[in-house]
Amino acid sequence: MSDTAVMLCGHGSRDEGAIAEFAAVAGLLRERFDWPLEYGFLEFATPVIRDGLDRLREGGARRILAAPGMLFAAGHVKNDVPSVLNAYAARHGVDIRFGRDLGIDTRLIRAAGERVREAMETADRERGAVAPHGTLLLTVGRGASDPDANSNVAKVSRMLWEGLGFGWGETAYSGVTFPLVKPALEHVAKLGFKRIVVFPYFLFTGVLVRRIYDAADEAAAECPEVQFVKAGYLNDHPLVVDAFVARVREILDGAGNMNCQTCKYREQVLGFEDEVGLRQESHHHHVEGVGTGAAHAHRHRHGDHGHHPYPHAGHPLGPKTLKA
Which of 41, 119, 136, 251 could form an SS bridge with 65, CB 3.0 to 4.6 Å? Predict the structure, then answer.
C-alpha cells in the first residue's frame, strides 16, 4: 500500500451533469496513476474536499498530491481551496502538497482547437462552408474578480484565433467581470463576419454553459444573416486529462509554481491595489456540500461569500453573472 495519493479538488456545481462529467474525468485520471485518487468539491456538490481527504487518509495516505480541477488561478485556487487543505493538514498531521491550476497550456489550446474545428466541420456540412478569414471566434471564459485569471482567457482567445487563422477574435465572460456575453454578441454581430463561433472555454457543462448557448441562439434569431456556431466545451478531451496528469507530476518535481508576478494578492495590480496581502481564507462554508439539482434549496449569488468587493461592480457591460 502506497503512502502517496492524489486529490482532485473541484469547484462544484448545482448542475448534476457537471458533477457527473467531473467524476468521469477523475475516473480517467485514476487509470493514469499507481496511487489512489479521490475527488471532492469546494461548494454545492458532494463529496466535499475533506470527504475525499478522509478516504485517502483512512486508506493509509500520508502524502497527498492535491491538484485544482480548475482552469485558472483566481480566488478559489489562490485562497479557498488552499485554506481547506491547510486546515485539514494541520488537524490531521498529513503532508498535503497543492499543485497549480491548469493555466495556459499548449495541450489545452490544442484540445480547444479541436472542439472549435469539430463545430466548424459540422456547420460546414449542415449549413455550407465559410472560409476561416470570414469567421470570428468569440471565446467565453467564466470570469473572475482577478484580472490575472481574466487575462488568461484573453490569451487563450488570441492563441486560438491566430492558430486557427480566423478573421477576428473577441473575448467575453459569463459573469463577475466584463464584457458579458450578450453585449459581446451584440458587438461582434456588427463586424461583418459571415460566421461567428461561440466557444465556452469551460471544463464542464453547467448552468452558465447553457446560458451561453442560449445567448448565441438569441443572437442568431436577431441576426439571421450571420451564421452562429456553438462549439463544445473541453470536458474529457484526452489532452485535458494529459494536462491534469502533468500538474500532479509537477508537484513531485517541485515545478508547479503559480504565476505570482501579476497576482493581486502579492503585487499592486492596477485597480486592485487594496487587495495586496489579504488574508487567505475560504468563503464557501455555507454552500459546502449543499447538493445539486433539486437538493439546492437557495439561490446563490457571487458576493454571498464575503469576497472583497469588485472595483468595477457598476460597469455597464457587466459584471453581474449571466442570467437566464
Answer: 251
Residue 289 lies in a domain: no
Instruction: Find out whether 106 and 114 touch, Cβ atoms under 8 Å.
Output: no
Question: Rounded to an integer, what distance in angstroms lies between the CA atom of residue 201 and that of residue 209?
Answer: 9
pLDDT at 100: 94
Cα separation, 81 vs 102, in Å, equals 15
CB contact set of 255 (below 8 Å; sequence gap of 6+): none
Number of domains within the chain: 1
95-98 and 135-141 as β-strands: parallel, antiparallel, unpaired?
unpaired
Task: Determine phi and psi for 229, rounding to 5 degrees.
Answer: -120, 130
The strand ranges marked E within the chain are 4-10, 37-41, 63-68, 95-98, 135-141, 168-173, 195-200, 227-230
> Which candidate, 1, 2, 5, places its Cα nearest to that of 252?
5
Is 148 among the domain residues? yes
Residue 139 sits in a domain whose CATH number is: 3.40.50.1400
- Lookup result for grid cell 493555466: 103
Mean pLDDT of 275-292: 60
Q: How far is the C-alpha of 85 from the C-alpha of 49, rounded, in Å?
A: 8
Cell numbers standing for residue 268: 499592486
Alpha-carbon span 256 to 248, nearest angstrom: 8
Give a yes or no: residue 288 inside a domain.
Answer: no
The torsion angles phi and psi of 134, rounded to 5 degrees, stand at: -95, 10
C-beta of residue 151 within 8 angstroms of C-beta of residue 74:
no
Q: Where is average pLDDT lowest: 179-188, 225-234, 242-251, 274-283?
A: 274-283
pLDDT, average across residues 21-31: 98
